[in-house]
């Protein structure tokens, strides 16, 4: 398969070394070689999420969505009250997943393109006990960035017992994120966005408090998504012992090891700064030179891994770019579906200047009547 | 990663073309190219399972285990009675998964190395209404092969309303299996065994009766494993329309398309016959020339994708073969864990004579004191 310049908000362009690591022979999932590789990948995942030794990373064959099931079926019991901050399609789908496992969900819905005001969160948490709060760090449908750090501070102040779950599918690797320092309990991501790996892996991290909740849970609501099953497996691998619950996707783990390695080699801070610079450049050009309006209502709430921007004829823009070998995405937010486009700028495309991906995309866009 | 000759019962050695198809750039999961590829892979999956147009294949990022959750959370309601025929570790784990989702499981446990007599199944089904029966076609822990065709006939005779679920993780691609002709309702497999693809995909097929049950279900017990979510996605892709529920593992699907293509090119019947020939040769050599005893109690119940054989010192045998670059597996059945080894002979290793994998394995084994 060949793809041209893939600038959708995931899957993204992978580096040559990640591609090489993917296209390797199968190895035994219990071999010392794979045990070491998996242990190293788990350790790197900790660093990527800025989590310490008391936190537990999980890498499981699946997709970002599987992380929702993990949160919903392990961290709360049926009937538990959960507060979901909705900034778009993905927050709403996460809420649906929580309800599937019996959660009683209250939703604070942000105005389109914006975030839920901290004062609303404070008030709601103060008025009622919630067992979990769910924050979508970046909602890929709107490119809205939530201020996870400040929200966590509010939660810690008003309702410290409330578990904090973060959907970091479109943020880990391209937005500032500090699992331990911000006191997050569960953060989930996927391999195919800013982590720079092909799709097929659910990647997440549990706090010691979340581990305790999951392990002391009386009833189980899921099997493949069960923390009780996966935590000992990951702990064993990290202690250089093979363990089996379900067969890991060995080549994808190999690719993930390389992709997180590349991020850490560049330096997490530098990597994130580079995503910010690329995003700012692109968004500024679109706003100032093309006079376009972003879906995210201001810079403070604008994600750095993708841009959602209103254009007159989204389908025509996507098709015109495709003719030039540049693949971008359409809108998926129900209220404005046919009114905007989405351009991903994560991983290689955001960080490897020699590729000129975002410049090329901007040039191609600027030739169009937008 | 390099692996030597990988002869565990999955992951298995993949062909050069499968490896090439894996190590490709990411593509958009909604691009026409990927839509066509996915549609073609779903069609090939039908052929592989010998299922017709009324059956629905599902290909989802995950592992074989995810198929258990799919059966347990979509085809039965909590409290439903399920009959599990246990031929080893994997049947027992499937039973645990069913119980997790609220099933009331009755188990008919075969004697170690054997299968449950048809008369017992007939009697049990006659005495009580079961909503589902679960058959592990090949239990990878014992290498015991169940006679799915005859069991299905019994079910159709005695209790035609009972849904028939088959765990075909270690059988699809190397054992005779006829989804439609045998009247199976749900058959699940995984990418990394006789299908010849790397691990990371749950591959399964639903009958029209199972689709009806899943779609008319009132409550939902799972989200990522939900048939209600996945069926329309797969139907859309097969009708050349992109659809989104969770991001597919695009490179793995590309690899799967090639690996099933290779099976169908060889001819499904010829492919299965070749697995039988390789297995018979290996098992006969071990029995007659080395005087060893198989875990499976007779030829009729012996799987053709792997061999489980008692040896005096399993750990030493595994280690001696590893020194020669041949990777085999140890036992995992709780009652005989330290008493046997398992050798996988699926896919390339069973079908590509020029590799001589199984001969080399036999030669290496025959030099040992077993």
From TrEMBL, chains A, B:
Molecular function via GO: alanine-glyoxylate transaminase activity; L-serine-pyruvate transaminase activity
Domain Aminotransferase class V positions: 22-333
Presence of the UniProt keyword Glycoprotein in the record: no
InterPro entries, per database record: Aminotrans_V_dom, Aminotrans_V_PyrdxlP_BS, PyrdxlP-dep_Trfase, PyrdxlP-dep_Trfase_major, PyrdxlP-dep_Trfase_small, SP_NH2Trfase/AEP_transaminase
GO biological process terms held by the UniProt record: glycine biosynthetic process, by transamination of glyoxylate
Keywords, in A-Z order: Aminotransferase, Pyridoxal phosphate, Transferase
Keyword S-adenosyl-L-methionine carried by entry: no
Domain of life: Eukaryota
Catalytic class of the enzyme: transferase
GO cellular component terms attached to this protein's record: peroxisome
EC numbers, comma separated: 2.6.1.44
Cofactor(s) needed by this chain: pyridoxal 5'-phosphate
Pfam families referenced in this protein's UniProt entry, alphabetically: Aminotran_5
UniProt: substrate binding residues: 342
Residues recorded with modification N6-(pyridoxal phosphate)lysine: 193
Annotated TM spans: none
Entry similarity comment: Belongs to the class-V pyridoxal-phosphate-dependent aminotransferase family.
Protein name: alanine--glyoxylate transaminase
Organism listed in the record: Lachancea dasiensis
Lineage: Eukaryota, Fungi, Dikarya, Ascomycota, Saccharomycotina
């Amino acid at each position: 398969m060949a793809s041209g310049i893939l600038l959708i908000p995931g899957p993204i362009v992978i580096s040559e070394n990640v591609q090489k690591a993917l296209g390797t022979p199968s190895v035994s999932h219990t071999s010392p070689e794979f045990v070491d590789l998996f242990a190293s990948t788990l350790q790197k995942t900790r660093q990527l999420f800025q989590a310490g030794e008391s936190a537990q990373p999980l890498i499981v064959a699946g997709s970002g969505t599987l992380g929702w099931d993990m949160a919903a079926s392990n961290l709360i019991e049926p009937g538990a009250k959960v507060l979901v901050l909705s900034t778009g399609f993905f927050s709403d789908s996460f809420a649906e997943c929580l309800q599937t496992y019996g959660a009683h969900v209250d939703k604070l819905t942000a105005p389109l393109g914006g975030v839920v005001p901290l004062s609303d969160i404070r008030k709601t948490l103060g008025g009622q006990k919630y067992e979990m709060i769910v924050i979508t760090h970046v909602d890929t449908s709107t490119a809205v960035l939530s201020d996870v750090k400040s929200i966590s501070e509010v939660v810690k102040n008003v309702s410290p017992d409330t578990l904090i779950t973060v959907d970091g599918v479109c943020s880990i690797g391209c937005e500032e994120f500090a699992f331990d320092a911000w006191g997050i309990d569960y953060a989930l991501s996927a391999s195919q966005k800013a982590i720079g790996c092909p799709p097929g892996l659910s990647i997440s991290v549990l706090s010691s408090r979340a581990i305790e909740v999951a392990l002391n849970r009386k009833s189980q609501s899921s099997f493949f998504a069960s923390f009780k099953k996966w935590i000992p497996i990951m702990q064993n691998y990290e202690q250089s012992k093979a363990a089996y619950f379900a067969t890991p996707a060995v080549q994808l783990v190999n690719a993930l090891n390389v992709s997180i390695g590349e991020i850490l080699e560049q330096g997490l801070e530098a990597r994130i700064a580079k995503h910010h610079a690329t995003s700012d450049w692109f968004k500024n050009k679109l706003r100032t030179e093309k006079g376009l309006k972003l879906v995210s209502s201001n810079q403070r709430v604008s994600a750095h891994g993708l841009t959602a921007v209103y254009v007159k004829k989204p389908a025509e823009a996507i098709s015109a770019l495709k003719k030039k070998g540049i693949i971008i995405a359409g809108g998926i937010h129900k209220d404005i579906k046919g009114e905007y486009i989405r351009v991903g700028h994560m991983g290689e495309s955001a960080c490897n200047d020699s590729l000129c991906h975002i410049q090329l995309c901007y040039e191609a866009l600027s030739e169009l009547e937008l």
